[in-house]
Amino acid sequence: MGCILAKKTQSLENGIKVYELYTTIDRTPTVIDEYSPTVLKYRTPHFRASAKVRFPPIWGSEVWQVGWVQVCTDMNFINTYGEYGYASWEIPVLKYKTSLNSTTCISDSDGRSYPWYGATSEVATIEGPTSGYSNLYLRMNDNFHPTITWDIPVSGSTHAKLTNVTRDQSFTVWLLAFNRTTGKKIVLKTIRWRMQLEIAVDPKKPLKERTRLASRVEQHRPEVLKLDENVPDAAFHGPNANEAQMLAWYPKDDANPVMIVPPKHKMKMGN
């Protein structure tokens, strides 16, 4: 069950109308899979958003796109291995925010269709001239299904030492109309959502009996902002979150972290 957030037609700039906006996070719990002797897997509930949009006629040869844009604003993803230390998936520009670093978010595009979250149901293109209204149905969904090694990621063995998994990520999503010809942007709606979870692990127990979901079963409901926010420039270019993230190991007996998985794309801090 979700919630209908806007049923009535809303008149927006340039005659664009949003007939219905729907957003939710599935009320199902995170599913934990501990059948593999080498890795723990889990799958989170889906965030979902959809909207029906009526786009007015385009008299000239302009090209417009309407769709979903998502950025990640915060990320804390830590796998703890008891007395040995912890592994952390990080996006440096989010982790090391300073007064000198103006980057407060990173694109969560598919890496090909900037600024759009995806290239299928997530975006529609209208090429002018058009003689009548265009009726659009746009939808997106997002969830996480990572794998985590039972043993510390620098060991190469399968002896279970994992004791805790925590994840806390925040996102902002826009329903955006974007003029590809002129660069004009019209924000139709702004949504914020967050995914939080914690998995407790007892590595001394046998496989299939080690884990339990320690966080709340249901996620917080997405928030539709009363005052829309502008889409930041970071949403319109790479790298995206997947390209910028890295995995670091922080041993408890050594202050220096070890890079396990480097980012595919290195961003300059402050850019």
Summarize the structure.
The protein has 271 residues and is mainly beta. The chain is built from 2 helices and 18 strands.
Ordered list of secondary-structure elements with their pairings:
Blueprint: E1 4-6, E2 10-11, E3 17-25, E4 31-33, E5 39-43, E6 47-55, E7 63-80, E8 85-90, H1 92-95, E9 106-107, E10 123-127, E11 134-142, E12 147-149, E13 164-179, E14 185-201, E15 211-213, E16 223-224, H2 241-244, E17 246-251, E18 258-261
Antiparallel strand pairs: 1-3, 2-3, 3-6, 4-5, 5-12, 6-11, 7-8, 7-9, 7-10, 7-13, 8-17, 13-14, 14-15, 14-16, 17-18
Structure explained in plain terms:
- The strands form three sheets. Strands 7, 8, 9, 10, 13, 14, 15, 16, 17 and 18 form a ten-stranded antiparallel sheet that branches. Strands 1, 2, 3, 6 and 11 form a five-stranded antiparallel sheet that branches.
- This protein has helices at residues 92-95, 241-244, and strands spanning 4-6, 10-11, 17-25, 31-33, 39-43, 47-55, 63-80, 85-90, 106-107, 123-127, 134-142, 147-149, 164-179, 185-201, 211-213, 223-224, 246-251, 258-261.
- The chain is mainly β and 271 residues long.
- The chain has one domain.
- A hairpin with a 4-residue loop joins β7 and β8 (85-90).
- The longest helix has 4 residues, at 92-95.
- It comes from Saccoglossus kowalevskii.
- This is Protein FAM78A-like.
- InterPro entries: FAM78.
